[in-house]
Structure formats: structure tokens, C-alpha cells
């Protein structure tokens, strides 16, 4: 399987399972169930396509990998295109399913698993998304570096995403993923689209900072052992 196809499938699965849980099952499983839906999706994809593409499933993750020197600019471009298409395709499938609800599905009343801030202001949401993505990338880069216990990397990364959701769903929706945010926002309406910029800028800022810190640390380590 081509790595870009793998990224499309992986991102589709993440958005499909995670957002489907929000849309169709949130009342039954609660926020804990939502958090595990996203985390378990990452674990499943990590162990199924990780050996093909690395299972980034997230443009911010790919950006952090690029800055850390772990992928090429060409692959970065291919990855983010595949990830955004995967997220949008998953949201489209979920919209088709939701439209089949007896009596109809009111997006305005029920939402469409879009990210957004409400109980907290825009600064709180931005800080959480940036900080959470920084920590997420730090875990990913550390768990997948040479010498790490790679057999457990997918589990560690997925559980970290669970923790991020448990910590911040109420603050920002806990996206840390531009592709996850854009797909549902396209179907949720103008209010969701007006806020989606934050879920591009903040995660990418946090990821870029983590990639830079990781690369600087590796560079210093190499220099010290030279």
C-alpha cells in the first residue's frame, strides 16, 4: 500500500470513529468514551499502517516530523493532502449516515462533532491546543526514535491522545489535528468554519516547536559524542 493512501485511510478512520462517537453515541458513552474512541483509533491505525507511513494521521504531526528532520518536504506535502482528504471524506460519510436518521438530523441543534470554544475564551482554547500538541509531538518523536521500545509506540501515542481529550474537551474540543477539525466544520456550518483557523494555527505552532526542540536536542547529542 502506498504511504499516501495509508495516510488517507488512517485519517479517515480516526475522524470516522472519533467523530461518529461524538455524533451518534456521546450520550451513551460520555466524554470518557469519546476520548477512548479517538485514542483507540490511533492505536488501531498505528499497528495496521504504521509500518507503511508511520501513521501520522495529522498535518500537525507531519509538520513536527518535517521540522525534526524525520521526513522530506515532498512527503510532507503528500501526507497533508492525503490527511485533509481523508478527514473530509470521513465527515462526508458521517453526514450521509446522519441524514438517514428517522425524523432527520438537525446539525444546527445537535452539532456535527466540530471543534470550538464556548465555555472558555479563544486564548484558553489556543493555549490548550498549542500546549497539548507540543506534548503530543514530544511523545510521538520520543516513542518512535531510534532505541525506543517501538513495539509499544502505538499504544503510548494512542493513550496520550486519550489523555489529551480527557484534559481538554471542555476547553477547545481537544483537536490537536487540523484535518480532524476541518472535515466536520465543512458540514457544521459557518460558525464552525469561523473558528477552524485556531485548529490550524495552534496545533501547528505546538508541533513546530516540539520538532525544533527535538532536532536541537539530537544535534547537541551528536555533537557531544563526536
UniProtKB/TrEMBL annotation:
<dbReference type="GO" id="GO:0005886">
    <property type="term" value="C:plasma membrane"/>
</dbReference>
<keyword id="KW-0812">Transmembrane</keyword>
<feature type="transmembrane region" description="Helical">
    <location>
        <begin position="76"/>
        <end position="98"/>
    </location>
</feature>
<keyword id="KW-0472">Membrane</keyword>
<keyword id="KW-1133">Transmembrane helix</keyword>
<dbReference type="InterPro" id="IPR022357">
    <property type="entry name" value="MIP_CS"/>
</dbReference>
<keyword id="KW-1003">Cell membrane</keyword>
<dbReference type="Pfam" id="PF00230">
    <property type="entry name" value="MIP"/>
</dbReference>
<dbReference type="InterPro" id="IPR000425">
    <property type="entry name" value="MIP"/>
</dbReference>
<dbReference type="GO" id="GO:0015250">
    <property type="term" value="F:water channel activity"/>
</dbReference>
<dbReference type="InterPro" id="IPR023271">
    <property type="entry name" value="Aquaporin-like"/>
</dbReference>
<feature type="transmembrane region" description="Helical">
    <location>
        <begin position="118"/>
        <end position="140"/>
    </location>
</feature>
<feature type="transmembrane region" description="Helical">
    <location>
        <begin position="5"/>
        <end position="25"/>
    </location>
</feature>
<comment type="similarity">
    <text>Belongs to the MIP/aquaporin (TC 1.A.8) family.</text>
</comment>
<dbReference type="InterPro" id="IPR034294">
    <property type="entry name" value="Aquaporin_transptr"/>
</dbReference>
<keyword id="KW-0813">Transport</keyword>
<feature type="transmembrane region" description="Helical">
    <location>
        <begin position="196"/>
        <end position="214"/>
    </location>
</feature>
<feature type="transmembrane region" description="Helical">
    <location>
        <begin position="152"/>
        <end position="176"/>
    </location>
</feature>
<feature type="transmembrane region" description="Helical">
    <location>
        <begin position="31"/>
        <end position="55"/>
    </location>
</feature>
<protein>
    <submittedName>
        <fullName>Aquaporin</fullName>
    </submittedName>
</protein>
Amino acid at each position: 500500500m502506498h504511504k499516501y493512501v495509508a495516510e488517507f485511510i488512517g485519517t479517515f478512520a480516526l475522524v470516522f470513529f472519533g467523530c461518529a462517537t461524538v455524533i451518534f453515541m456521546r450520550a451513551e458513552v460520555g466524554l470518557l468514551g469519546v476520548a477512548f474512541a479517538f485514542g483507540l483509533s490511533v492505536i488501531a491505525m498505528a499497528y495496521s499502517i504504521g509500518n507503511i507511513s508511520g501513521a501520522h494521521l495529522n498535518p500537525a504531526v507531519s509538520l513536527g516530523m518535517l521540522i525534526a528532520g524525520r521526513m522530506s518536504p515532498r512527503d510532507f506535502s503528500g501526507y497533508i493532502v492525503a490527511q485533509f482528504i481523508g478527514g473530509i471524506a470521513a465527515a462526508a460519510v458521517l453526514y450521509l449516515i446522519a441524514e438517514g436518521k428517522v425524523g432527520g438530523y438537525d446539525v444546527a441543534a445537535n452539532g456535527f462533532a466540530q471543534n470550538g470554544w464556548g465555555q472558555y475564551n479563544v486564548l484558553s482554547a489556543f493555549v490548550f491546543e498549542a500546549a497539548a500538541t507540543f506534548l503530543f509531538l514530544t511523545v510521538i518523536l520520543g516513542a518512535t526514535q531510534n532505541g525506543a521500545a517501538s513495539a509499544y509506540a502505538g499504544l503510548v501515542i494512542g493513550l496520550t491522545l486519550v489523555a489529551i481529550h480527557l484534559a481538554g474537551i471542555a476547553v477547545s474540543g481537544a483537536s490537536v489535528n487540523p484535518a480532524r477539525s476541518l472535515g466536520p466544520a465543512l458540514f457544521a456550518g459557518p460558525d464552525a468554519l469561523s473558528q477552524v483557523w485556531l485548529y490550524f494555527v495552534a496545533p501547528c505552532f505546538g508541533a513546530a516547536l516540539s520538532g525544533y526542540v527535538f532536532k536541537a536536542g539530537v544535534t547537541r547529542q551528536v555533537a557531544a559524542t563526536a
